[in-house]
Input
Amino acid sequence: MTQQSDNETTPPWDAARVNLTSKELAPGVYAVMPDDVFAKDHVGTTAGFLIGERGVLVVESMLNGDLASQLIGLVRQVTTKPIRFLVNTSYHGDHAYGNYLFPESTVVIQHPATKKYMEENFEEDRRFMIGLMGKGKGIERVQARTADIAVSDMISVDLGGLRIEVKHFGFAQTPGDLVVWAPDAKVLWVGNMIQAPAPALPWLLEGRHKETIATLTRVREFLPEDATIIPGHGRPMRPADLDFPLRYLRELDSIVRAAIKAGRSIESTLDVAAMPHYCSYSLFDWAHKTVNVPAAFLAYRERQDEETEGFGEGGLA
Ligand SMILES: [Zn+2]
Output
């Protein structure tokens, strides 16, 4: 992803080398993370599972059948109870492509926008994911499986002695971002809206950075200070750790906004928005320069084009 050669990109992580491990954070509440999660600032997809008296809820299904099997295997190491629910935090393949490997009786939960996207764009998305993660990583064998229950706002799931909430806080990285909240254990799975703790940065793959700021702010305000956040691709975090990506996004916003106001081109905006104090992130060049700055630039440009009176201060929600 960070280097180009023969139209092949270097993937952000190698799907063939991921070893998943589980850690019990509270009774029946397990985080699942790649075993190199404490060694790198960006790793393969995280997941989780929650075990009640009546069954199990799994968070994420991973990129391919192998990783989904690893995840199910971790569940089976600690319980024989049925996997009754599976939640995808977004349509991104590394969070939802493994759905097909779960039992038919498992109820899949997605946001309606995630379900719609997967139903309408699966083959196109599969091509994108093969381009990103490489050929021969099991993505070719994936079968699309979408939601049995679509959640646009919030549902509460009672697993028997363990109550879980599946919530939509708003657009953060995709229109269908869901989080999974275990209130008693105070653990929140957020998927890709947070990739990993600092120095990792958000990936504004669909732009709309002002909405990302608003949603992350709502998540921050919702959480008690001692909550645990499981980000999509990194080690567990505290709510205070959300201040870092929020600071980055606000800085990006004000620099790009000023650049547009000054009539700068995208090239010139990339120069003034170099933001080198964030460059210790291993994916900085790709995420910041090729995704986030252009995304913020285009958001303001489109907005500016729409405005007849020019560029109104404060009117750029
Ligand atoms: Zn992801």
Summary: The CA atoms of residues 190 and 207 lie 18 Å apart. The helical segments are 65-78, 93-96, 112-133, 209-222, 243-261, 266-272, 284-306. Residues 1-7, 308-317 have pLDDT under 50 and may be disordered. Residues 248-306 form one domain.
